[in-house]
Amino acid sequence: MPKTIGTHSGSFHCDEALACYMLRQLDEYKDAKVVRSRDPATLDTCDIVVDVGGVYSHETKRYDHHQRGFDEQFSENYKTKLSSAGLVYKHYGKDVIRAILADEPVSDNEADTLYKKIYESFIEGIDGIDNGISQYPESIEPAYRESTGLSARIGRLNPWWNQPEGDMDARFAQAMGLTGSELHERVRYYALAWLPGRKIVEEGFNSRFDIDKSGQIVLFEQFCPWKEHLDVIEEEAIAKDPEAPKLFYVLYPDTSNSWRVQAVAERPGSFKSRHALPEAWRGVRDEALSERSGVEGCIFVHQSGFIGGNKTRDGALELARKALTMD
User: 3-class DSSP state for residue 284?
Assistant: First the structure.
């Protein structure tokens, strides 16, 4: 007999649509019927219930977050109160990830990394919005309105105030499909693009003393989006060894087979570099830059000093090494 997933009737939200979708990715609930009701007797017959009922109990498979006194977070490292999506993800998220990546090999360590990353980048925002938790102090007035996020788009699948309800179960099925398609895209991106990028950055970071004895230059033989990974990896390394040198420059090939030297930002998102390329090189190009720097094959240094280019790997490395000793 197919199992049943219970949730509330009436207007729906992103969190329970996603919670139901995630449960149906699991073998135990893949053929489950979704029952939408607020009748306690009906919900009592369901095998698992989300976002309704006033009970959170993993043992009895009840996952509501509306009851007085509820204050569950993803872990002690997070402050955002969970919605039904967060509760389901907390208990079943790794299995959901493996189900979505059924055709891809995923190690336990990779699954742990993805589990945390997908919560931070996708699920937590849904939790915060459903629980009415602002991203920033309410004293700060937003510069513009934003209504294109997933939670807003799910909300617009409900009937307008002056429309007949029609088939609400069909509307809810559409909502589950939309949340599910975005979850799939996020999981596959982080597993197949973000995670391989992290491996490249880890390898470069771990080899930094082989590149230069200072340990302040990292070189990637292949380009990937590196800033977020490097921030995290360096922070983890400094937590283990507070005396470890901070990184100043990152080297990588660009799309024209030349090489870039990029200064590491003072902090994530900052436009200020820890050690910008020398002032004497800024805004200078080609032969003039080669002559001024004493390095052959130079292409440019940006006028702010945050990035420069050279035709070869060795030329870029020489620029970075010289820049370490200059202002």
Answer: coil
H/E element, 188: helix 168-189
Q: Do residues 263 and 306 touch, judged by C-beta distance below 8 A?
A: yes
> How many Cα atoms within 13 Å fall on the side-chain side of residue 217?
23
Question: What is the rounded average pLDDT of the residues 252-263?
Answer: 96
Q: What are 290's two structure tokens? A: 């080669």
- The reported pLDDT for the residue numbered 1 is 80
- Segment 282-304 shows an average pLDDT of 98
CA dihedral 33, 35, 40, 41 (to 10 degrees): -60
Spatial separation of the C-alpha atoms in residues 304 and 319, rounded to whole Å: 16
Count of beta carbons in the 10 Å neighbourhood of residue 140: 9
Least confident of 66-70, 142-146, 183-187: 142-146
- If pLDDT is split at 50, 70 and 90, which confidence band does 173 have? very high
49 forms bridges with which residues in the sheet?
Answer: 6, 62
Residue 96 has pLDDT above 90, yes or no: yes
> What single letter denotes the amino acid at residue 252?
Y
pLDDT of 30-47, one tens digit each?
999 999 999 999 999 999
CA distance 52 to 5: 11
What DSSP line would sit under 203-261, residue for residue?
HHHHTHHHH-TTS-EEE-SS----HHHHHHHHHHHHHH-TTSPPP-EEEEE-TTS-EEE
H/E stretch holding 195: helix 195-206
